[in-house]
Amino acid sequence: MAISSTFSGAKLERLLINSCSSPSASSLRACSLSHQQMKAFSKPNRGRKALAQRTGGVRCEVAQSDAINEGDKMDPSKASALSALEQLKTSAADRYTKERSSIVVIGLSVHTAPVEMREKLAIPEAEWPRAIAELCGLNHIEEAAVLSTCNRMEIYVVALSQHRGVKEVTEWMSKTSGIPVSEICEHRFLLYNKDATQHIFEVSAGLDSLVLGEGQILAQVKQVVKVGQGVVGFGRNISGLFKHAITVGKRVRTETNIAAGAVSVSSAAVELALMKLPESSHATARMLVIGAGKMGKLVIKHLVAKGCTKMVVVNRSEEKVAAIHEEMQGVEIIYRPLTDMLACSAEADVVFTSTASETPLFLKEHVKDLPPVSSEVGGLRLFVDISVPRNVGSCVSDVEGARLYNVDDLKEVVAANKEDRLRKAMEAQAIIAEESKQFEAWRDSLETVPTIKKLRAYAERIRVAELEKCLSKMGEDIPKKTRRAVDDLSRGIVNKLLHGPMQHLRCDGSDDRTLSETLENMHALNRMFGLESDISLFEQKIRAKVEQSQK
Fold it and tell me: Where does the Quinate/shikimate 5-dehydrogenase/glutamyl-tRNA reductase domain start and stop, copy by copy (predicted)?
């Protein structure tokens, strides 16, 4: 496995320090690093004192003396002569050079957790880069991405260790949300590698949404990639996973009828409201939409699609409402400022809320004094809240004459066509299975990338050296055309010789070659051409750091 650059420095230091607490002889020997050697793994301003504090006052020198006392047969001079490399190989850090990192998803969704929990865990889009940086700062996390919507809060990571990675991310979620770890564990779901890949593909395809095939989730997955571009920690594996998920989402919608009749959360909110109103009042019910952002605009569009020709829109500014009004020709859209919200609610039969407010806009005291609605619309004022965090407090449900629905209640709308949903989902699953295989093959192929690069570099060094010998023998006055021809000839010979080995190092699912065969070929080439392994390169870096610290 290739050693990630994020494994060096502070993370390596932490892993080595953690190994000091292990009672095993090998771990004790690993802790016998001298003060100068340990400095090679740490940041420049971290000395022995800081290391001792972080390990609860346990010093590696003590562990070393204990280990020597424990093994009477060990020659002290030999123990002190142990190189930093040998100590590293016997330390806890060594196991991470033998494992392949895992893709893990730690998530809570509308299927597993109540909205009260999801809104505490929600991370605004503007905070995603900060969250990625904090997650990648954890000991066992190499890459990360955040997918936070009204229906789900999912964190995707590449973890050096599955168990420790999940533990660290869960504790981070608890710290940022204020929710106890035990409560998060009760509602979370965990998926690894192929299962994690299949999950994000299903999410992007709309199979995991409340409303089958809804297009909004695909746009949200695209936004994860857009926000992640250039963010340290949104690495090759996670970036490749989300980009492939976008491809899957597009393909599923193109090749199946999954989007036919499927709607967004906003559309489901409109359908839910119409289900609760008497059919005779659909054309006359007074509609109020609070918030003219993306969700609010979709609510307005779906109301118009259902035959509504007049509505009031409350928003902070008039510009967005005016733009929507201009787009919706023939529909009466009346703008009201946010200060008129309660007055407008008093004149509405149905109130849709979709703002980014972090505090409720409606509580029991705001609703209880509103005038009753007509019996023609069922005698109940409907509040349909599709915001996370919620715009309408749950206490509004206690008010006589009012009914409150939030995103969790949209399940009722989705239940309408179960048989058709399952049929379309089966069609989509066949595509997802095919795409999952391709993604796993791509990820497997990354294993051989370092060897491919090293083999090319090895061949190029030989080519350049032999070319220089040849040109020197030909004299200094050879024409440029001849020089170029000889150079092209050498490149052509090298490329033709490398073509066969390179083909046998590729594992992209385009042929019947298995990953194990490809890895066997990789190891064979490493042996035949004396190519340095990833671990030996890592060891050279450590040796260089130790030598530099001893100067």
Answer: 272-413
